[in-house]
Amino acid sequence: MADKPTYKVKDVARMTGISIRTLHYYDEIGLLRPGRRSAAGYRLYEEDDLLRLQQVLINRALGLSLEDIRRSLDDPDFDYAESLRRQRGRLVLKLDETNSMITAIDRTLTGLEQPQSQIDFASMFDGFDPIEHAEEAENRWGGTDAYAESARRTKDYGEAEWRAIKKELDGIWRDASELMLAETAADAPAALEIAERHRLHISRWFYDLSPAAHAELAAMWETDLRFRRNIDKYGEGLTEWVAAAVRAAG
After folding, report:
1. Full-prediction pTM beyond 0.85?
2. Total structural domains in the chain?
3. Which domain holds residue 159?
C-alpha cells in the first residue's frame, strides 16, 4: 500500500494562504500538530492534519476562539462530517444575513442619495425589524396591558433607541450561541443568566415581563418560523436551547 501523501509547512501555507509563522504557532499551542516529521525534523502534514486545519479556519470565521476550537477538536467523540454539516448550516444562515444587510444598505443609500426618497429606519438594521410582527402582536395581545405599555414606550423611539436595542439583543444571542456551541447545559448557571438578560431586555425596552410570560414567549419562538429563523441565524438549534434556558430560569 502506497504511503499517504505528506505536505511540508510551505506547501500548506501556499494551499491555504496562512503564513508559515501562524502554522508554527498553531503547532506550539497544540491546535495543529503535524502528524509526522521528516528525518531532518521538518514538519510534515498529513491528510487528517489538513482536515483539522479546515475546521480551525471555518470555526475562526464563525467567531470561535482558538481554545474553544482546540477543545472541540480534541474531543474523542468529534465527528468531522457532522461538524461540517452544522457549519454549512450556520454559513448558509450567515449568507442570508449578509444578503439582508446588503439590501438594507441599498435601501439606505437610496434614501440618502435620492431626495424624493425617505430612509426606512425600521428596515435599516439587519436582524431586527421593530414592526415586522406588529399586526400579529396586536391580534394576539392588543387588549393586554403589556401591549399597551409596549406601544406607549416605543412610539417615540428613534434611530438611536432602535440601534441600542439591536446592539443589546445581538449581544445576548451571540453570547447564547457561544454557550450552546460549548455544549453548556440549558439549565447551567451561565444559561440561566442569558435567559435573565433577555427577560430584562424586554422589560427595559418594551414591557414588564414576568418569568411565566417569558416562558410563553419562548414557546412562540419555537413554533413561529419567523422568530426561529431570526434566532437560529446565530447558531443552528439556538432557538430550542434558549427556550429551554428560559423555561429552566422560570
Report:
1. no
2. 2
3. 126-249
With H, G, I as helix, E, B as strand and everything else as coil, classify residue 18. Answer: coil
CB burial of 77-103 (b: ≥16 within 10 Å; e: otherwise) equals eeeeeebeebbeebeebeeeeeeeeee
- Tell me the average pLDDT across 44-58: 93
Identify the top-confidence range among 1-5, 85-89, 160-164: 85-89
Do residue 74 and residue 130 come from a single domain?
no
Instruction: Indicate the Cα dihedral angle 45, 48, 54, 55, nearest 10°.
Output: -130
| Alpha-carbon gap, residue 61 to 65, rounded angstroms | 10
Average pLDDT of the chain? 82
pLDDT on residue 179: 94
Q: What is the CATH number of the domain that holds 173?
A: 1.10.490.50
Same domain, 72 and 144: no
